[in-house]
Amino acid sequence: MSMVLTLILVVQMLSALAMIGLILIQHGKGADMGAAFGSGGSGSLFGATGGANFLSRTTAVLAAVFFVCTLLLAYFSNVRPTAPSSSVLEGAAVTAPAAPVDSSTAAQIPGNTPTAKPDNSVPPAPAK
Fold first, then answer.
1. What is the spatial distance between Cα 80 and Cα 91, in angstroms, rounded to a whole number?
2. Positive or negative: CA dihedral 95, 99, 105, 110
3. 114 close to 107: Cβ distance less than 8 angstroms
4. What are the pLDDT digits (tens) for 24-71?
5. How far apart are CA 4 and CA 1, in angstroms?
6. What whole-number distance in Å separates Cα of residue 32 and Cα of residue 40?
7. What is the dihedral angle through the alpha carbons of 43, 48, 50, 55, rounded to the nearest 10 degrees?
8. Average pLDDT of 9-13?
9. What local confidence, expressed as pLDDT, does residue 31 receive?
10. DSSP readout, 57-80?
11. Closest by alpha carbon to 69, among 4, 2, 3?
12. SS3 for 124?
């Protein structure tokens, strides 16, 4: 399963990088307006409009591949092995109960003021 996830992740990364490159190569919609009125050169490798169609369709295909890879990675990240038990609590880990805290440790915690126990060994002073 790890090999499949690695392959999907590699395809996703390559499609993302290729999509970034294609988007940066493409001309904006405003660049075609200047060529339509004769002020800019419209000659290209694919013709006047062939390049825009090829690049935009390739970008759309790469975006679809990226989206499918993202959905597959999200699906496989949430797949858990199915256990024959139907209870959620049966698969829970058992934890040991917390140990009682003695007063010397409690005094070291900031903001924790231990309650003072009355000292019964010294008799109270006589009243005058």
1. 12
2. positive
3. yes
4. 988 776 655 655 565 555 555 555 555 568 888 999 999 999 999 999
5. 5
6. 9
7. 70
8. 96
9. 59
10. HHHHHHHHHHHHHHHHHHHHHS--
11. 4
12. coil
Distance between CA 87 and CA 81 in Å, rounded? 14
What's the rounded Cα separation, in Å, for the pair 128 and 33?
Answer: 107
Output the six-digit token pair for 40. Answer: 């800019």
Tokens at 30, concatenated: 């405003």
Amino acid at the residue 81: P
Structure tokens at 116: 């003072």
Of the CA atoms within 13 Å of residue 85, those in its CB half-sphere come to: 6
pLDDT for 55:
86
Positive or negative torsion for Cα 11, 13, 14, 19? positive
Calpha distance 23→55 (Å, rounded):
8
Report the predicted TM-score, pTM, of the whole model to 2 decimal places.
0.50
Q: Write down the pLDDT at residue 127.
A: 77
**Which tokens is 37 given?**
């009125």
